[in-house]
Amino acid sequence: MNVIAIRKPTGEMNLPPEDGGELGTFSLKWIFEFLVRRWMLIAAVAAVAFALAFTLFMIQPPQYSATALVMMSGGGEQAPGPQQPTGRPDTPASAAVVDSQLEVLRSNMLTGRLVDALGLMNDPEWNAALDDPEAPAADDQSPAAQAYRSEAREAVVKAVGGAITVRRRGLTYAAEVQATSQSPERAAAMANHLVELFQRYQIEARIESAARANVWLSTRLEELRADVQDKENAVEQYRSSTGLVSTQGALLIEQQITDAQAALNQARADLAERQARYTQLQDLITQGGSPDTIAAVLNSVVITQLRSQEATVARRQADFETRYGEAHPALANVRAEREDIRNQINAEIRRIQVGMRNDVDIANARVAQSQAALDALRLQLAGGGAEMVRLRELEREAAAARTVYESFLQRAHELADQGTINTAPAELISAAAVPNEKSSPRLSISLVLSLALGLGLGLAAAFLAEALDDGFASSEDVERRTGAPALASIPQVRRSELRQSSTTTQHPAAYMIERQMSAFTEAFRVLRTTILFAAGQPKTQVVAITSALPNEGKTTVSLCLARVSALSGQRVLLIDCDLRRRSVKEVLDIEPDVGLLQVLSGETTWRQAIYLDEASGMCVLPVSGSGFTPKEIFGAEDMSRLIAELRGSFDLIVLDCAPVLAVAETRVAASKADAVVIVSRWQKTPMRAVRAALQQLHDAGANIRGVALNGVDRRVPGYYSYPTYDFSKR
User: Fold this and answer.
1) In degrees rounded to 5, what are phi and psi of residue 126?
2) Cα separation values, 412 from 93, 436, 478, 628, Å
3) DSSP 8-state symbol, 439
4) Is the distance from CB of 166 to CB of 180 less than 8 angstroms?
5) For residues 73 and 78, what is the distance between their CA atoms, to the nearest angstrom?
6) How confident is the model over 167-178, as pLDDT tens digits?
7) Has residue 51 got a pLDDT over 70?
8) Is this model's pTM higher than 0.90 or not?
9) Which domains does the chain have, with CATH numbers?
């Protein structure tokens, strides 16, 4: 928030950007306040819209809906043609196939057939042209008459199409065909007949497609048969001319290469196995581990026998150590015998290791031998490679031609059978029954729709009014949109409250004197405290009260602020600085002979010109006569000297200034005050006017203290007094 309290400005005042209202802040609090603030508009628009919509719904002619259920084809039967050289059997279709069939049901083509079949051109429900007095005669065959009938038929087809709804039931192949009409019998007939026409269309389309495909296939099969014969003859002729011999469909050299490749693969696999076992043994020995886990060691008969002998000797050694002790001579023999067995085991392991290495070498030799044999065969094949490449090419061409021919031949047989089938792929599951109840208008649906429409229009009207309303709705609104502090929210004193007052003037300033414990009076105490005791502000003695535009209540605020301050025990002087109007003296009902202008001109002293307000004890320096003068008085030294002199005699001096945007001298007068307060009327004063006034006062060097929101409805949320607090009790 920008605090506007700079007496000597050096640049532009930083105002928040214009947002055009509060529609950008959709908090729960704002929504609640918005609904309370606009509830009458919402209710009025909603009631009118509801009544109109409900009336329009209920006066509509009754409509009846009938629904037929049809199972769509799950696959397509396409015949090969010039754009599709191969055929295929039926396969489950994707959702796109079903959707395509639904579009046929919705098409104007099928709807047009329905119109002709049921004679809907002669039905007044669909053909509004039957009642047209300018319609051409039935025997009129002029171009204009034909064009008229064509347009009328298009209109009927469009109307009937709009009354038919085709929708898929979930992700299944089942579809609902719903027809709506003013006649229940007509609705059922339309739904059922549309399904029947769709089935006929499918049969016709399939038969026509099969016929076209058969004609094309017959020609194409003759071409393919001749092509197959030519290519197979070319293969046999080339074999004979080149002398290439085949055994079981493969060349001998190619079979030998295949066998050699298999032998090489086996040799490589054997080498990999032997190499893996040898590498495992070497890694184990290198890492200092025991080779006992190696399969070759475990399976060695010699090592097994030596292990058995070692175990026997170990038992003897343990027996001697237990029985005779370490010093017995026989114990050394036993230990030597055991050590000899271990050496034999290690020697046998080394022999196994050498054997495994020899196996690896032998496997390597076999791989090299197999590779050499394969290379020799390949070299031999390369010698006659040109003839064999050509032969294989001719064989592939012949095989491809025969495959195409056989597929076309199979499709021709299928189409021959298909042409004799006169059943539609789509199947009617449930025929539409004649409805007993009307589908529209229905009371419950009409009520719900009318209510929704009414509320929607009511809210739309309220939002529109809110958007067009450029006034301030709350103190937070003031601070957010202007950057200036909101000093107080002054409640509105209703006319009924003024009429109940015993005062003769029936003015809020008089009401405040009579009802000093009212919320209205308390608001001015809050305003006084906020102005005089604002944190971080110098001592405030001279306060200028102004507004952006006329009729904002700034004189009322000035009088009430001065009276509240006087009733609190302060010495207060109210100076009427609005030279063009006589608001202060009119409210106080005084007719001064001298006033502010006479004091500034030196004709009299301020002590002789002031009036005492007996109701509050404040002093008033009014403007006598018309109050207008073309002279610049607020910028003169006389005004500055007067205010300086008054500071010594009064605790608070209130300047009731003219509106900023209407009168130029207000900026000069406001610059001489310690604090300036702008009065803005709740939801009335345009935001742009207040921003302009703030900018002009800032440019004039005024110390702007903030904005006082005047005339706030206490019933509206956001008014920050205590609505449940009884101010009449202490």
Assistant:
1) -105, -30
2) 22, 51, 85, 111
3) -
4) no
5) 13
6) 888 888 888 999
7) yes
8) no
9) 37-60+441-466 (no CATH), 64-206+424-430 (3.30.1890), 473-712 (3.40.50.300)
